[in-house]
Every structure is written in C-alpha cells, then in structure tokens.
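Entry 12.
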Amino acid sequence: MTQFQKAATIIALALFFAGAVGMEIWQSSGKPRPSSSQPPTQIAAANNEHETNPKTIEERQQTSEEALAYYTKWLMFFTAVLAVATAGLGYVTTRQLHLARAEYISTHRPRIVLRDVYLIADTIHYTLVNLGGTPATIIQSCISDEFVEDGMRWKPLWPAAFEGPTTRLTFSGGESRDLQHPLTSGVGFAIRFPDSLRIGIENRPGVTGKVYFIGALIYEDSLGMKRRSIFRRRWNPDSLTFVRLTPEQERDHEYAD
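Predicted 3D structure (tokens):
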C-alpha cells in the first residue's frame, strides 16, 4: 500500500467512525423506546407521563446536553484526526510531485555542447545548444583560444584553470545560443601569418604549433545538480575553419557529462 493510499484510508476511517458515533449518540439522546410487549394503554400512559412530568422533561434536557457534550468531544477528536490525515496527505502529495519532477529531470537531463564554430575576421562565432529536455544554467565557464607549440602539453580544460568573470546563461530544453569570442592578439597573428612563427628572432629558433579554440562549462539543472561540458577544436589552415580532434583525443577533450 502506498503512502497516498494509507492517507486516504485514514481519512475514510475517521469519517466512518465519526458518523457511527454521531448516530449512536443521536439515538441515545431521544426519549426511551417502549417495549413492544406492553399493552397500548400502558404505552400511551407512559408517553403522556414522559411529556408532562417536569422531572422527566428536565432529565431529557440533561440527557441531551450530556449527549451533545459527549458528541462534541468525539467530534473534536475525529476533526483532529482528519486534520492530521489531511496534512499527511498534503505532504505525501508534495513529496510525490517532487520525486516525479526529479525523475523527469534525470530522464531528460540537460546537456550543453558546442554545435558550430567558425572564424569571421578576428572574432570566433560559435553556437552552444542544450540537447536535453530540461533547463540548465551555466554558472562557471571559460571560453578561450590558445597557440600550443608542437611537443607541448595542452592546458587542462576546467574553469578553475582560467581567470575572469563568468556570465550566467540559462538555456531552456533544446535551446541554442549564438555567441562570440574575440581572438587574442597572439593567436590572431598566428592565424594570419603562420609562416612568420617559423622565423627565429634574436637567436631564438622559430616555433611551430597549432591554434585551438577551447571551452569549459559548469552548468546546473533545476535541482542544483552540477555537470561539466568540455570542448577543444583545432584551427585548420587549409579549410580555414575549426575542426574536431581525433576520436582518441576527443575522449578527454570534448565531452559533456
């Protein structure tokens, strides 16, 4: 039996007992019922005495008052039981709604990913989309670009690895947003003049490397559950666009929890 059924059973029992007690008191508060074995003349005389005798009338009033007081006490008791059962039913209903909402969010949880990214002049245009069916709010993020020399390790991708303010963005289920990121001066120079980096300066050898557009997002759903989304795209000078990494590289550098 579920909690909802238990609460409904308590309410039904409270009403049943209250009705039973009320009927019993109402029947006991009336005038006495004569025996069916008495002759009609004795019954009529008893009724006449019951209606005209002051002592009998006073006893009837006293009996009615006692019955009313007795019924009032039971009514208060069952009213309290009904109030407790109603409060319990309200709690159970609220709890069930909360659990149903949590289950729905868990089944249709948000998932923010990078959809499109391309370069126009000195600005990277990109699109973030929530692939889930429930809202999500980005509470911490880092969107950046970097030039990584060949043979160097990539910078770790999590928001704490970068400094700077975070703009909170809320995505509805299935919503996408077009955003922009201006290129830093060094990365912009590396994209426009890739051959110049190979020229040594002041006894320093030339460098070779690749340009990346990177991002790390921390977002939470309506229940406060935090999740992370990571992406890294490489600049391809041949196609003049940002492309995905190899499947092996994407395992650690492009995913959404």
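Annotation: The radius of gyration is 41 Å. DSSP finds five helices and nine strands in the chain.
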